[in-house]
User: What shape does this take?
Amino acid sequence: MMSFARLYAIATAILFFVVASVSIATIDVYEFENSQQEDDFRILVQELRCPKCQNQNIADSNAGLAKDIKDRAYKLLRDGKSRDYITNYMVERYGDFITYRPPVTKNTWVLWFGPLILLVVVVLVLVLRKRTDPKSQGSAHITDEQKQRVGALLERYKQTGEKDTVENEDQGVGQKGKK
Amino acid sequence: MKWIRFGVPLLLFVVMAAFLAKGLENDPRHLPSARLNQAIPEFSLPTLDDGAVFVTQQDLKGPLLLNVWATWCPSCRVEHPMLNTLAEQGIRIVGLNYKDERAAAQAYLQKYHNPYSAVIFDQEGDLGLDLGVYGAPETYFIDTKGVIRHRHVGVVSDVEWERSLSAIWRSLAEEKT
Assistant: This one.
């Protein structure tokens, strides 16, 4: 029987390929005056979110509304409007929700900087823990008595070759001594 | 240090649970209207009855309800009797027939009764886009100056009307005097 982990991995891989192939979005039959305009359009349809089908951009969505927004964006581009102008134009109508790149405001502050703050906090915690954790100080914490015992054991091992004796003596110290 | 091992996950859990609990109450489809407290955008569109008669933003001085509807929209069918009732009470309702077919829309109104004082025929969804409509039905509350004061997304049910919408309407209607 296939293990759950393996099944899960295969399912994830399949899902990944499906999603990847879907997101190679089709540029519909729009004609452009130059490649700059085409690039602008491509970026716009990726960054504008479909208000109807909320977790898709308008490039991926087949909803009628997504088509309308695409058409309007295309028309404005052909009229010589800039990408920023069109984004603002849509935000005026549909709110910040429409863009996948929301402006930094009081409401979106956490969204923009939350992950960074979390990262800094985690790094700080890790650094501080590393510093105060006695286990991470390594072999410096062996006492003199322990060192002597290790030395004595090694000596005995060299002379007699009796491995068993060494391991039976004291598992923990014996292993450290072998390093 | 033991309290960290226990306390941090607990704290994370509580914070996440609080956010998720709050999220349960939100309907993600109810987006705030970006057009709130702004005048109706400029437009010039034909009426449903007569393609030669045009309506503009100048004609939409309230108080009135601007109701976005279409024959392809099942929820519109659900709210239609309520619109009829409201119209009978003397509330002026202007229809915005959104991305629809003229003949089908006319037949629909004949069959289910026409509560609208006028119906704007927006076949391409142009005014819809300018208003920020993302689905039908939507109902806009327009004041005497033609400013959008409230947007209701979804069916105008008698429950919703009693609970909140009638109060909004009354405050708009009283401004007239």
Notes: The two ends of chain A are 42 Å apart (CA to CA). The helical segments of chain A are 4-23, 35-47, 64-78, 83-94, 109-132, 144-160, 163-169, 171-178. Residues 134 and 140 of chain A are 10 Å apart (CA to CA).
